[in-house]
Amino acid sequence: MTVSLVVIMFELTGSLEFIVPTMVATMFAKWIGDAFYKMGIYDAHIDLNGYPFLDNKGEYPYSTVAIQVMKPGPGGGMLRVITQDTMTVGDIEVLLRETNFNGFPVVVSEENLYLVGFCPRRDLQLALHSARKLQPYVVTNSIVYFKSDVPETAEGIPAPLRFRKLIDLVIFY
Fold first, then answer.
1. Closest by alpha carbon to 60, among 7, 8, 117?
2. pLDDT tens-digit map of 145-167
3. What's the sign of the alpha-carbon dihedral 31, 37, 41, 42?
4. This prediction's pTM
């Protein structure tokens, strides 16, 4: 990409006599930069600012605990999570009302904080709104499942909601 950028710049300007020295200087600068620091400039800025960024080229173990990956910002308070199979519609509505996070890590349980995925706030709000609007059996104590295998419900218990498709699994790839 570095060489092609130099060629494009010289084609635009029309001064071809300096193309070889500029290309050599650019390649040396790139090699020296790569020798001292393996990341690109944008990755370095993300790292310096402490933003949560999971590189798609990196390897991440599946035994990651949510608190190791997700850290609230300054003044952000305690980390709030969504459990995979124990939260109700009412719990999620309270979570959305009391926080202003852009999303929530989905974990196995409150005791076992193994990370399952990430659920964006906007997707969660839209799914709850459409479930309330389109499905009359959704009540405050309806269980919300963020997993594929949902157990059968007994008679008299509100039907569960299946929100597995809301989970962003990019953090594992």
1. 117
2. 988 887 777 776 777 888 888 88
3. positive
4. 0.55
